[in-house]
Each structure stands twice: as structure tokens, then as C-alpha cells.
């Protein structure tokens, strides 16, 4: 019997109720019909298991067993495990972030990363930062920028082909449902991808490889956990002894603020928010700059460059990532219905007009 119970069941459920459910399932497929339970018995037995499980989880919550994280500078608290349910597959019927599956978008996504990994160099990042830190492209509000994204499709994303404003609102609304009191996190979710306006003609219409996709540090060795890392061998920095060691131009625990990331929408939106005087907490800014840094928050690469503050903020990013990744769907959000709420948050944390 012990070998029958999946280890995942042991982690998520009380072992006694899990065994009871397994035993019931075994009797349902018994060779002798007379040994099989009636449907009424099956329903009642499973109901007992469910009641027991709910009672157990209710007790755990009352005892404060759910992990909580104190936000940097003591401004708020957030329960680590919300009620958001992770779907099994994306809108194409495949696993999320599966870059090897033969899908209708896979070939284009892989080619995107080939070009990205060849061209994202230290020199390129310095050039882009120098150009866009001027914030001289346009002045507009956060919501105007959200609407500008209606025309943008992220070609690096194997999970979604909807307009970006749909993803922003899906993510924000999913977090809002689970954490209703954490308004800064709702707004962070709404704006985290606004840097993708770099794809728009008003911002120079940069190529996709210079705006979207997973991000990674430049100026040190490229980690093997990065998606399609095989293409880095064609990057000019790959064989440069100044840049191809573990630390490269950085030092241990120097802090991610001091690390150059591959250029894209994360770094740009972080720059826009910071230079326009946002009052979002440091955790919000951390999420904006590193939400595409999957080598860190999924594979735990580059942790040797993190400061103590980075370590704390990473916990918030890992919470956010569940919603950023798995809330993508074909279900539309009623934009006009939720717009007043998010406009109130924008007014709270940002000026009316921002320099972009």
C-alpha cells in the first residue's frame, strides 16, 4: 500500500485521508463485482476524505502555519501561498515554457533566442542604456502606455499570442483576487511588461530580440540554464576572458543593481519607473527588472552576485512569477470594469505623466 501512494500526495494531503482514498479506488476496480462498492458508498467515503482534509488545512491556517514574508522596510506582509490554481497547460495545450515541444510557435521562438543570444553583448547593452536613459521619446500616463500595448505581440513567448494588455490585466487580476490588500503588487503586475512599448514605432520599433524574452547578466559567463544557451557560443563576449568567467567584471555579492542585464523591456521599465519617482517599494522595482530573469528565479543561477536585499526581494518575485506565467489564457478581462481601480493605484504610486 505504501508504494501506491504518490509522494506528491504525501506532501499535499494528510496521509491517512490519502490512503483512505487509494483504498477506495482499489475496491472500485476489484475483480469480483460483489466486492465493488455502490456509487452512494463511493460518494460518502470521498466526502469524508474531503471533510477531513479541509479540517486539517483549516487547523494549520489557524495555527499560522502558512509561510509569510515581511516586506522590505516593514511596510506590509504577504502570504506566500495564495489560492491561485496553476493550470496544467497553456492555451496551445502544451506545458508552460516548453521550448522544445513541436508547436506552431516553437520554430519562431528558437530562432528568436538564437539572434538574441548572439547580439546581447556588453557593448550593446551600454549603447541601449545610453540611448534610452534620456527618457526623451514621449510623455504619457501609465494607462496610455497600457493601451499602446494593444498592438504588441511577444514572439518569444510560447504560451500566449494575445495582445499584451490582456496579459497585464490577467496577471494583475489574479494577484488581486488572492492578495486583495497588497495594492502595490496589483499595480506592479499591471505595469511589469510596459517596457515592451520599445517594439512600437513611437519608441524606435526595436527588434523583438532587443525587447522581449528571458534576460540574463552580461559581463560574466552565460549560464547553461538559460533557454537555448547553445547559441551563446556565437556571442562575441563568449570567448572574451574579461567576460567569460564566473564573476567576470563583477564581485561576489555585489548586488544585482550593479549587474548589467541583457537589454530589454524589464530594464527599460525599471529605468522609467525609478527616474519618474515612483513610490513603489523596492520589491516592486525588483519584480519589474528581474521578472524575465528565469535563470535566477527558476534555476537559481547567479545567486553568487546577489546582495542580502536581493535575496529578500527574490521571495516576492517568486510569488509574482506564478501569476505572471500561469495566468495567461484566452479568457478576456473586462477592461472598462477594472480600469477605475487601476487608475487609482497609478495615481497613488506614479505622477500623472511620465517621461519615456
UniProtKB/TrEMBL annotation:
Its cofactor is Fe cation. Its main location: cytoplasm. Binds 2 iron ions per subunit. Coiled coil: none annotated. Pathway: Polyol metabolism; myo-inositol degradation into D-glucuronate; D-glucuronate from myo-inositol: step 1/1. Substrate binds at residues 97, 154-156, 196, 213-214, 291-292. Fe cation binds at residues 167, 192-193, 265, 291, 324. The keyword Membrane does not apply. It holds the Pfam family MIOX. GO terms for biological process: inositol catabolic process; L-ascorbic acid biosynthetic process. Keywords: Ascorbate biosynthesis, Cytoplasm, Iron, Metal-binding, Oxidoreductase. GO terms for molecular function: inositol oxygenase activity; iron ion binding. It is an enzyme of class 1 (oxidoreductase). It comes from the Eukaryota. GO terms for cellular component: cytoplasm. It is found in: Cytoplasm. It catalyses: myo-inositol + O2 = D-glucuronate + H2O + H(+). InterPro entries: Inositol_oxygenase (IPR007828). The keyword Nuclease does not apply. Its EC number is 1.13.99.1. Belongs to the myo-inositol oxygenase family. This is Inositol oxygenase. It comes from Ambrosia artemisiifolia (Common ragweed). The lineage of its organism: Eukaryota, Viridiplantae, Streptophyta, Embryophyta, Tracheophyta.
